[in-house]
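Hey, quick one: can you model this chain's 3D structure?
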Amino acid sequence: MRKVLVAVFVVGIAIFTLQRTSSAQQPAQNPQPQNLSIQATAVAELRTWDAFVTAESRSGDLRLRSVVRDPLLPAREVERFDQFHNGVRIWGADVVRDSERGVPQSIFGDLASPDLQLSTDPALSVDDARAALLRLGGADALLLVQPEIVISRLDSGEYRLAYEAAVSGDSDVSRVFIDAHSGSELMRYSEIQAQQTAVGTGRGVLGDTKKLSVLQQGGAFVADDRLRPPVLRTFDMKGSFGHFIAVATGSALFASDLALDSDNNWTDASAVDAHAHVGWTYDYYYKRFGRRGLDDRDRAITTLINPLTPEAALSAPDNVIEQFVRNASWCGPCGPGGAGIMFFGNGVPSGIFFRDTGQNVTPLAGSLDITAHELTHGVTDSSSRLIYRNESGALNEAFSDIMGTSVEFFYQTPGAGPGLADYLIGEDSFRAFATGSVNGIRSMANPALYGQPDHYSRYRGLPDTPAGDNGGVHINSGIPNQAFYLSIEGGANRTSGVAVQGVGSANREQIEKVFYRAFTLLLPASATFSTARIATIQSALDLYGSGSSVERAVTQAWDAVGVTNTSSNTPVITRLSTFTGTLPVGGATAFYYYIVNMPATGRYQAVLNWNDPSVDLDIMIGPPGCTSYSCMLTRAESATRRPETVCLSVRTGEQYWVLMQNFGPRPTSFELVQTIDPSPTGACVPPGPTAMPPSETSGNKRSSDVGARAYQLNAISP
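Sure thing. Here's the predicted structure for all 718 residues.
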């Protein structure tokens, strides 16, 4: 479900970012400065920022605070610099340079612009500041450290000259900042971890009670987790879609945006589940693999909820519904400073369902596997960086499904139903409503039930375009998903019939570790399914040894789904695959197509057959990208003939789209047979009517396999 956010969200993968922010209103004497956000790992940017850090440190505007050796990478030396302006430290502004033998490997920082204009001459003396701080601390206040003159950046983004000190009083120890000219309080926060943190409770989307790590702030509690190492915060957009888009595209978040509850008995189900499930996902990665968050360095996770209310979704445009209502997403370069955001759509009101799926959609934060799925995209971004297109993109999606399901089994009891662990994806949010609909959006146990291929022979070569799902990344992920499932549970693949001896559910941790290690450490960015097979088998060998039950299970699973060491999705036989499926009614407004990369020179023929004589199907062949009658190369569109046959002279390596339409009056199961005759003679003559196999019309599960239908160009609007 990883989707780029509407047009305004289109962003590049920014390794180096120069962010400039502004405040709506600033006093004339103190204009808002420009801020520098540094995220440099590429060579060119590292050279630039390395020179910047070196020059600023020589000038004294950056001063070395600490130098440490990385215990995980002993050759690495990590320097941390504080920023100063006219000799005064800028509170919280620092930069970290990670180097190996003097060569910078990464530079990160959040700094005020060197162009900052701010007087550093205080009106208050240190004694005046001490007295003001003690007054603010109450009758029994003590200063634990002496006041320091600093430059403080407020939540509004404004910089102020300030005195700060740790003040003990009123059963708390606070870091307090006062204006260096007037003595008024600018901000404060508690210095005691036990008092900063509170444990709240609340009911999630499914009505279950969860504990939450929150922060007591004044007389209320906010969704700010201080118990785990990274910063985990959940922000409530309160149904303000404009504010949500602004934040996602880089505008600042404020303390007032934090999800909040007055009595720590939380009632916003989206806030409860989003905040809890993000924390659980962090815990799973640490407990299972020793990984510290998305980047293994405790990267902060900013979560946004309630971009739209379910009621507002009913009048939202289709693209907003697809992206922000029945969707959740991780976007690495989005959010303030390009630090990344996780967001959850809220679904629609109960009693409303989508016509294309027959499902009611509840808040997506209620699905633990969706949370872990999306956050795993952040893990992939920080490790293998699998390119989000074609096979590597399908592997990217599959790894997120694999980890999402693994997190679900880690915390939930196995079973069928809400709040139970299974091999469906999103089943706690996408609920069957209309007759014939199903729960969830994908199945690892039976991918074909949701229109995904479960075998490499059914790989769907869709266009590498947004309309083609970037080459079918959400569709073809069914193949590696099935391999993961079979490695654990065993059984036979429905397409090949090949049986697998899995390790068993009691040993699922072994398979989880095999796939995790392969997908984060071994796979290159452009990995194919074949590479994934080799890497996961190698991972099993490394972890559990040659001849182990784990190695056997993983090898058999890839065999069962038809992925070999040399698999390619280009056909290599002259007798092309026979496809079966169900074709919905679309008439002239909806084409269903798939791509054929011609494996031989000769006459290509496609025969479309179906049993229902009252249904009118047409078949066409066109060049890639053709979705109108004017560009078709050949077509068969009789209103009475069954089957329909098209043929075309082709050459090896050419690519064509084969398109089908159903003019109704009802959906129908179909069979499509493709051949290439290398030495054709005579004209292309349609064969006589033939009966389809009974299994395709008897209402069994095969009839729901839409393996031949690659993509619906004109999806039914909800």
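One thing worth noting: The first strand starts at residue 35 and ends at 40.
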